[in-house]
Amino acid sequence: MPQELIENRPDIRQAxxxxxxxxxxxxxxxxxxxPSLAVEAGLGYHTYNPIYLLATPASLVFGLAxxxxxxxxxxxxxxAQYRTANARQMQAVLVFERTVLQAxxxxxxxxxxxxxxxxxxxxxxxxxxxxxxxxxxxxVLFQSARADYGEVLLTRRESxxxxxxxxxTRKKQLLAMVNLYQxxxxxxxxx
Length: 191
Prior knowledge:
The protein is mainly alpha-helical. Helices cover about 70% and strands about 10% of the residues. α2 (about 10-30) packs antiparallel against α4 (about 75-145). The chain is rod-shaped.
């Protein structure tokens, strides 16, 4: 079965995105182990006399500061976050595998149902043709006075019942096609 057919399912796409998010969470937790450098800038007014408050260039103050932090004291917390992210990633992998397996099972089941209904339809079509022929023969026998009208009615009733079963099987066959289309993603496309 081509992979592209199952990829159209929304639940598969959701599981893929959750797996990608879990991978990014692990990378983010791993990055917390490294030291970080931050540069900050500030701008404000600095004056003790309200007259100079309106003299903007004279009362402006700016500052630039740098900060260097290393994960020394909270290493245990960062390790716990990293292990949690790894566990969530493993959980996302298992959910993805289960979702793919369920999708494959759904599609395989619907294909089998469709094939069985197709085979059943062919057999019932042969049965309807044989019963229609039997009904015609019984009518000919009645016209030649070799059978009574009860036999004609009985064979006609059996023929009509078989036709009704054939119609019901065709309905089930069409519903199975709809279910197969739905199992394949229902025409949903990624954008």
